[in-house]
Specification:
27% strand; homodimer; Quinone Oxidoreductase, Chain A, domain 1; seven-stranded mixed β-sheet; globular; alpha/beta; six-stranded parallel β-sheet; 24% helix; Rossmann fold; 352 residues
Chain lengths: 352, 352
């Protein structure tokens, strides 16, 4: 074991602050990574504040962060994919059983024996896993991704969660040239969805409650922006969408969007509103439409997404912050006051 | 034009009674059919009582019936598919534009210029279409189905709506040998779903609120029956279904069934509860599950379904009634007091 610098929360109402955590020395299959940037995901905030106590209670101290980009500092003797000096990335998962049907299908995110990157039982230490708000991390090479050399690293970090979360359902539901794709909610996830749908060749329509987001949506790659409160504008698009990605976690009228799908169209939820959605069966029955959900993506697809980003020069739009500003960033996140993701420059941790 | 005997309702609160209606003489593409049996669908009752006044107000007199089986009596000069004496069937549709993308895809049920079998503007007469509670009907040959010669005709009639409504989504979502399929609601639709899923080679589980239906479910082809009110029994099946067909129109907890789907599993709604369903996004997100709807099927698939029924000797379980008992049958339908579909023997109309 060795000591790593990190930022952790001591309790649900405590701010994140500087601390030291024990990391394992790399075993033969492990990669040790010096973390350069870590994105700030809304999940980090939920977990730190124990807002998921029903399904995933927080163990303190909690070190969040699952949008990790860095440079390899050391590798175990059996590691073949990486060597010291390589760029590397880690997302929401750090281990799985590798033998179940889900793992064999390349869908490790559904493995019943998955290990999440933070606040999850750690079979190596007997404690919990610690995430990317830290100067280093040690991860089995199977869960370490290669990073294209041409991308800005601060903007690459959020690809590991916000990126794959939006890329995966688009690939699964066949977003491609000639398809009409809607994106509901232009935040951390939504702005990535716009970039991917555009790069995949689709006609991209952003739905927004606010006309003020129009210019930004067009800049990100949208072909049209529809003000979702304007029933007349909405009805012009009735029955015309092949796919809609809904990244809104607030309560909203899902039926209004289902009605915009064409026959066999799909709407995928990647945000999970707290309250149940009020769903009219009629909208699904007419047109054989479907409503589904999606969560991150498997390791192979995450690598595919990163390679796609390299080819298309796609990164997240980020506001880079020092780790010392992370509590302030959380407050701003609650007000959606970020375009579109905070990325922590981990060099700032050296001074702690 | 010629006069046909029929049963019609004069208003939303009137019983059905004997009447005479004008039918067109067959044009060159038409098939005239002597109706032998007509199934009683819950939609007939909704339409007769004007319970869909918001979307499809009833025009009186209304002659319902869209599960029609009979014998061809006359054909137009251009008719190639049928000749006098052939068995023939008509379902929920009698015309479509034939040129739109939906028609070209063989999905006439989604054609924007569809003509339904009853209570729909009739381009030939300028009035509305009259359904199968009648001694004859005249339909364009494109919407007339061939009937396998080995099937009981009374039990064949319900295949035209209850049959295709359950067969189509099973084919669309890949029900086949080795798949685990659930059926929610053992009524007119549900009992057909059990027969089809069994014949397609699936492991079939019927969900019922009542243990009294168990023997019947097993007789129809179910491998297991789960009492849906028993949380312990339900949880044993968590994450295990490839496909669930939900034929319940009453308000019910859809999330309990979504949780039983495996990764990429689908639940299709063929009943449309009046109240919106309360849907938890979480159940869809975990496991990339999908929820969809389906309505009848295209003409080619309806023919495929009838041929499949011929091969597998599948018909609906029916209680045959004379037309004079149809009002009583409606009352019993509201109490689910039928196993599993009423089929009207249209010979009874001769005495009117």
């Amino acid at each position: 074991m060795y000591n790593a610098k990190a930022y952790s929360a001591a309790g649900a109402t405590s701010p994140l602050s500087s601390t030291s955590i024990a990391r394992r020395d790399p075993t033969e299959h492990d990669v040790q990574i010096e973390i350069l940037f870590c994105g700030v995901c809304h999940s980090d905030l939920h977990q730190v504040r124990n807002e998921w106590s029903g399904v995933m209670p927080t163990v303190y101290p909690c070190v969040p962060g699952h949008e990790i980009v860095g440079r390899v500092t050391r590798v175990g003797s059996a590691v073949t994919k990486f060597r010291a000096g390589d760029l590397a990335a880690v997302g929401c998962m750090v281990d799985s059983d590798g033998t179940c049907p889900e793992c064999k299908a390349g869908l490790e995110q559904f493995c019943p024996n998955l290990t999440l990157t933070y606040n999850f039982p750690d079979k190596h230490t007997g404690k919990v896993t610690y995430g990317g708000y830290s100067d280093s991390i040690v991860v089995d090479q199977r869960f370490v991704l290669r990073v294209p050399s041409n991308l800005d690293l601060a903007g690459t970090a959020p690809l590991l969660c916000a990126g794959i979360t939006t890329y995966s359902p688009m690939r699964h539901w066949g977003v491609s040239k000639g398809k009409k794709v809607g994106v509901v909610g232009l935040g951390g996830l939504g702005h990535m969805a716009v970039k991917f749908a555009h790069a995949l060749g689709a006609h991209v329509v952003v739905f927004s409650t606010s006309p003020s987001k129009k210019d930004d949506a067009l800049r990100l790659g949208a072909d049209e922006v529809v003000i979702s409160r304007d029933a007349g504008e909405m009805s012009k698009h009735a029955g015309s969408f092949d796919f809609i990605l809904d990244a809104v976690s607030a309560d909203h009228d899902i039926n209004a969007y289902i009605g915009l799908l064409r026959r066999d169209g799909n709407l995928t939820l990647v945000g999970a509103p707290e309250k149940p959605l009020a769903l009219s069966a009629f909208g699904l029955i007419m047109g054989r439409r479907s409503l589904s959900g999606s969560i991150i993506g498997g390791i192979a697809e995450t690598q595919e997404m990163l390679d796609f980003c390299g080819q298309h020069k796609i990164t997240s739009d980020v506001e880079v912050i020092p780790i010392q500003k992370v509590n302030e960033a959380y407050d701003r996140l609650l007000k959606s006051d970020v375009k579109y993701r905070f990325s922590i420059d981990m060099a700032s941790l050296k001074s702690e």
